[in-house]
Amino acid sequence: MITVSNIKKSFGKLQVLDDISFEVNKGGIVAILGPNGSGKTTFLKILLGMVIADGGKILYKEKDISKSHEYRKHIGYLPQIARFPDNLKVREVIDMIADVRNEPSNPDDLIKLFGLEPFLDKNLGNLSGGTRQKVNIVLTFMFDTPVIVLDEPTAGLDPVSLIKLKDLINKAKATGKIILITSHIMSLVEELAEEVIFLLEGSIYFKGTIGELKTRTGSEDLEHAIAAILES
Amino acid sequence: MIKIFKYSFSDLMRSRWSFIYLGFYLLLGFVLLFLNNDLSKGIITLMNVIVVLTPMIGTIFGVMYFYNSREFTELLLAQPVKRSVIFLGQFLGISISLTLSLIIGLGIPFLVYGLFRSGEIFNFLLLLIAGGFLTFIFVALSVCIALFNSNKIKGFGYAILMWLFFAVIYDGLVLLSMMVFADYPLDDFALLVSFLNPIDLSRIMILLKLDISALLGYTGALFQRFFGTSLGFVMSWLMLLIWTSVPVLLMVRIANKKNF
Known about the structure:
The structure holds 2 protein chains of 2 kinds.
Chain A: E1 2-11, E2 14-24, E3 28-33, H1 40-47, E4 55-60, E5 63-64, E6 75-78, H2 90-101, H3 107-113, H4 129-141, E7 147-151, H5 159-174, E8 178-182, H6 186-192, E9 195-200, E10 203-209, H7 210-217, H8 222-231
Parallel strand pairs in A: 3-8, 3-9, 6-7, 7-8
Antiparallel strand pairs in A: 1-2, 1-4, 4-5, 9-10
Helix pairs in contact in A: 7-8
Chain B: H1 2-14, H2 16-36, H3 39-68, H4 70-77, H5 83-113, H6 121-148, H7 152-180, H8 187-195, H9 198-209, H10 217-227, H11 230-257
């Protein structure tokens, strides 16, 4: 469903992504891992059309994504940093995104799930980072999209909300959605993801299941496997 | 695009700055009219304020809004909306809300003073239209500058410099070149350079309509000969349209290539 071929991107002299190619065809959770500055977020932003690649292309359902914006209807995106216009209220931003996307949305259950009711009439600028992240999660999951892109979804969340988020992700997975996730919390990745794409210095260093990665590095858990790669 | 425009517009309308801007024009209009006690004199004074002030406010608001709404823009970019639509919608939001402040702020005092009973209504409308054009032009130019510079301080600095260039430095350069080349025929040159600066162009268009071009001496007569004809009239409006559309097209072009 998503075919990435030869994606290149550099910012000035810094080559962030160098010839990235892979395919995701069936539903499931794919974790994109790598050290800081390895190009994870850049890749996700290219997938969403926010950053424009220098070369290569991404096909979604066999269609080049640079040709049309329609494919974004099928993607829910949770950005790394929850940034919103400060003077909008929570309710307004939810309504606005629903209005702009013009698709059926179901925010109410999510608002209840994350206990956001008391914040609905508060300005986004006055909310804590964690609460803003919850709003972010509501905006991402309130549409029924076949692809979900999560960039560091756990940032600032308390343990209770984290469990709720994991449930949401697992439910989405059960319905056959494709979920791309980046995280530095390896236990979370190990718990959720089946497949791992490991980016290192702009290239794909490893692509496969978590089990394969562990056997390849001879490590017991993912954290040590990643550390083994980075230290070698 | 209507949706993006709606949100940008309502966002700006809620901000205190739109009201301060509106209040300023209200005050300016009333003060000028009651001090001058004469509609046409009021319009002349107003012209001098408008041709300098609307570009400045457009420039400042354009950059400020662009940088402040970066989060909003990024949120929209991940939605199934065309990039050009996002930026055009925001551009129209800023320009139209500023133009409305201008029209309402000056309209009320002039209406109260009895604009409809005087022959000045067309001159007044001309003034508002020119102010509107200048707002659109300078908002577009400043958004272009903001798109080029991710550094806020730099972007703000360049935008102010751009305004200063068109409002002050340009005239100085023209004057200087006129003095240096005083021995050569400069009529066509003078006409040409006034076309290349939207502020000068608007000023001349209004001055000539106000029938005070006699004050401008020989150049005034020359300008009257050109701008007074229907060709000159059409040409100058066309030029303002070009001045509006080129920065807007440039803005969309830069926005389409930019990484967020």
